[in-house]
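Question:
When you can, review this sequence-structure pair and walk me through the tokens.
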Amino acid sequence: MGHSSRTVDYIVAFLRNQGLHDVFGVDGANIEDLYDAVQSAGAPLRALVAKHEFSAATMADGYHRASGRPAAVAATSGAGAMNLVPGLAELRASRVPALALIGQPPAALDGTGSFQETSGAAGTMDAERLFAEIGVFCARVREPGEIVTLLPRAWTAALTAPGPAVLLLPKDVQQAVLGAGAAPDPAPVEVPAGPLSPERTRREAARVLADAAAGGEVVVLAGPGVIRADARDGLASLAAALDAPVAVAPDAKDVFDNGDPRCLGVLGPSGVPETDRRIGAAAAVVLAGNQLPQLAGGALRARLADVPVVSVDGGTAPLLPVDHPRLIRLTGPIGAELDGLAGALRAAAGATAAGAGAAGLAPAAAPAASAAATADVPPAPPVAAAGTTAAAATGVPAPPDGAPLDLPTALAVLARRLPDNAQLVVDAGNTGATTVHQVPAPAKGRFITALGMGGMGHSFGAGIGAALATGAPTYVVAGDGAFYMHGMEIHTAAELGLPVTFLIVNNNAHAMCHTREQVFFSGDYTYNLFRPARIGAGVAALFPGVRALHAADAAALDRALAEPPDGRPVLISIDTDPHQVPPFRPFHTHS
């Protein structure tokens, strides 16, 4: 750089030159120099302090899922670094890019038993080995000058894997002054797109799908890879070219318009059996950004053993046998591959239609859609058509005063009130499973849930990150168990003045664990029911900057959700029955 500056100043300049705006973290003695550098640099970069390092990572997670932009995470040494582990693990499992900057005790004290030492010397734990297993890249910066090469390497790894890249920063290295000219101005890192698949492979995939569509139904199974590639339009184009139904992964519910007649709903145990039946009867299947993990159609892998499968996967192979006899992979950038495949299908259809016209024949009719589901779990409600208000689209009238409130009713009221551009962030457990099953993705918004590690409490930080990234109306749906784990991030939302609405479903239980006790064990004991708590009243007393209330019935919930935002976070608690079994198929099919 053109003047003497600290290593941390170089890091901040690098972040700014990559277009980053936000650093999520928790301050501490061995990372405070980075915070000082962010403050000195000023806008547009800012540091945001969470209540817990796990939530700092989930803020970066929600930030990226909502906007497609990566963020940085900062934490101090010792317990601060260890608290990052589950959050970074979710980023890794869900392939979310982020740069984690983790402070360490001074390198000069390595091997001397310094406070929170994790250098690996003198019998101490080795943080580099730990985070190398969790991140897509990890390095300890041992000398100040190493930052010039390690930063772009870490950032490139985060973007290309994608996932979290980790740099371990000893305090004395952070503070060291890089002499004038010792470090050039950090340049933006350019990550080139990978090559498209060969044209002959694309033509073969189009031929296989066209032949299958001529004699049956092609079904598309879409996953989060399409969202990461910002390729929803390409998916819609492919579905239109094939006139194919689309089933969506639970963590990609918004990848395809839920109001489109071709939308089959959610894959996996939160969906309905009719979706599986349609896939099992398909003449061919397209995997679009979907590896087929267990919760997103993994149970269907055996049914696909003898079916032509076209995988548009960006280079991440589906979880099918490597010797699948009828698998064709398109491994280039997912958006470009979807566009190319749709174009090849349209070209083939045009040639076929022209030939049929010349012969005096009409084009073959598309196969009729099958009958509606007869399911052994409750069917999902009608989904909203794009471009309408949620209340009008669902067709659900305002509930009368005194109407009882259970979880399905509460979610129907929520669906009625969600703006079209809302970001809906959903937590784990029975509450999450029911929301994924029942609530349509907002027509012009996002539906975010974390299935990599499935950590309870993820939604609180993720909702804050999503709201910061986009400014769109953001709604978090979480159970009381998730609230007790990381619900204090509501204080962070209040400090930042974010009008996020938190709907807390209080059944005074770890309800999914209790359901499992009932379904899979004798059910004559429980470890997972709690004494009653008044979450709405408690938050109202604790945080004056939060508009917190309890909705005792469906009408009260509807009125609370209808209140115009006033710039403060909103928390609405409702009471539900912990014994209610959610629409999660393993609970309904176990005998």
Q: What stands out?
A: The CA atoms of residues 223 and 475 lie 22 Å apart. Confidence is low (pLDDT under 50) at residues 356-389. The radius of gyration is 25 Å. DSSP finds 23 helices and 20 strands in the chain.
